[in-house]
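Dear Dr. L.,

I hope this message finds you well. Following up on our conversation about the binding site, I have prepared a predicted three-dimensional model of the protein together with zinc ion. For your records, I am including the exact sequence and ligand specification that went into the calculation, followed by the structure tokens. Please feel free to forward this to your student if that is useful.
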Amino acid sequence: MLTVYSPDHLYQNAQFELIDGQLLPPVDTPKRVEAVLEKIEAIKLGEVLPAQEFGLDPILRVHEDSFVNFLQNAWSDWVKEYGEKEALPLNWPARTLRQDKIPEAIDGKLGYYSFDAGTPITAGTWRAAKASANVALTAQQLLKTGEKTVFALCRPPGHHAAKSLYGGYCFLNNAAIATQALLDAGAQRVGILDVDYHHGNGTQDIFYHRNDVLFVSLHADPRLDYPFYLGYEDETGIGQGEGFNFNYPLPWGIRWPEYCQRLKQGIDLMINYSPDVLVVSLGVDTYEHDPIAKFALTTEDYLSLGKMLASINKPTLWVMEGGYAVPEIGNHITNVLIGFED
Ligand code: Q9C
Ligand code: ZN
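The resulting structure of the complex is given below.
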């Protein structure tokens, strides 16, 4: 299997992250992707190709202009006020506050365009986020030119980023940008299967009103876990998109036998939809020893997961999302990809 990789992810390298009431070393570290790359090279999974530059157009097909503009300028605006410290929001336009005014001050803008304080903007954030989108777009292009399956080794991840919201370590929604590019190039239907531990709130939101994308997500129950405010079972799409969104909220501690049953249901929905292309938001934070998550999949289970997704039998674009057990992350990602190809 081909992999697409960009070293520019190294530019997202925060000093601190606000997590569980403390400023701690970040959970989303550059080591995650470097460990996956090393494993891919060690087992000779296939060629590793660099990302091509696609410019802003495919990004603006998914994200709002003003949001992209904000991401490009946030660091320099922040530095003018506060110096070179991580930019983190402290205020949000919650419930009864106004949603229709975009503040001029950077503090106001950070809150307006974010939904958590755990996603630091740094000097290199925009460069890394853009490169990550280019990784997914390059993989998408390879698929269009006849590859059956390609792995986009994206970082920062993307599935929490909505049209004009960042959070959950995500700035640009790589899977959504690649999906839209596939549709713009002539695909009629794209299926997105999100197996990251966390609900793909950004991806769901982007395609919620549309019937040209089927979104299926398995994730921790939002009653108990991040991102908390989306990902319930009764979110089934709106308007033309009704019936094209499926959420499977799962309990903490879930093991493979039960997980596999729900995954099978999601796969059956996908087979029934018969997409031209399958996009997989691949997070391996479902691992039993993941430092920020509470499912209980084992290293071997990822082989089975990959094998199961092969039964959908469609051209498949893999987009890397979460997974924070750095010593094992390479095994888990490659197990999925090997299971799929076997
Ligand atoms: N108590 C992805 O996996 N919150 N993002 C962690 C832990 C943020 C995860 C809090 C989790 C974001 C792409
Ligand atoms: Zn996750």
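In brief: Strands lie at 2-5, 17-19, 22-24, 48-50, 149-152, 190-194, 213-220, 245-250, 277-282, 316-320.

With kind regards,
A. P.
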